[in-house]
Amino acid sequence: MKGEQRMSILKIESLCKYYGNKKNETKALDGISLEVQTGEFLGIMGSSGSGKSTLLNCVASVIRPTGGQILVNGTDIRSLKGAELSDYRGRQIGYLFQNFELLENLTGRENILLPLALHKYEEKKGEQKLKELAAYLEIQDVLDKFPTQMSGGQKQRIAIARALATDPKVLLCDEATSALDPTTTASILDLLKDLNQKLGVTVVVITHQMS
Ligand code: ADP
After folding, report:
1. What are 91-123's pLDDT values in tens digits?
2. Is the Cβ–Cβ distance between 6 and 37 less than 8 Å?
3. pLDDT class of 209 with cuts at 50, 70, 90
4. Neighbouring C-beta atoms of residue 197, cutoff 10 Å
5. pLDDT of residue 179
6. For ligand 1, mutation pick of 15, 18, 19, 29 (most atoms within 8 Å of CB)
7. Residue 5: which residues within 8 A CB-CB, separation 6 or more?
8. In what order do the strands lie in the sheet with 75-76?
């Protein structure tokens, strides 16, 4: 990010998410505010049940907050509808999950190309992107394997490639290394730091542990 001016990519203001009804209410988020600049690597740590997944799901617009605002690149995501919302979810935000969430009946290559096909990328452009990501993530050998034929670390690398395929503005990582052994965890964390520093991807990592 040398020489590039940092700007606010994600701004969360007084975010609240209450589940249930008045009699049986869980205040999962109760007035959270934070700001992430482009190229930043932000770690958010909290115990189980402290609202980490709720926060990410609000940012990914999978669930609707009870109150407050989420601005991504200056746009209030509540104002997005239809194609714009689908574009936001599918292209502007990359998501990395604890259990990888790869489709078991698709190969690594097909898993990575799926979001590109869904968002109507040109086939040639998609193939070029796949080639670049596979080289960077060192996953050329597993592209034609199915997830059941891959190790945990290989699955997470495929998931990283899938998340980065659409050049998202922010990569959200929800306990992305919890299912991995310590050595693989270290290599995936190094990879996240590297893609933050070298590719300038803004990364938000949510974890319940010190890593
Ligand atoms: P974390 O990811 O930090 O473990 P969560 O965001 O999953 O925390 O949950 C925060 C709180 O909200 C917990 O008390 C959880 O039980 C509650 N919660 C999460 N999802 C729901 C839901 N759909 N309905 C009711 N309560 C929920």
Report:
1. 889 999 989 999 999 999 999 999 998 888 888
2. yes
3. low
4. 14
5. 87
6. 19
7. none
8. 24-37, 8-21, 67-72, 75-76
The one-character DSSP state at 90 is I
Looking at every residue in the chain, the average pLDDT score rounds to: 91
Q: Do residues 204 and 172 touch, judged by C-beta distance below 8 A?
A: yes
Give the residue, by CA position, lying nearest to ligand 1 atom 24: 19
CA distance 85 to 42: 24
Question: 3-class SS at 72?
Answer: strand
Atom of ligand 1 nearest to the CA of 175: 2
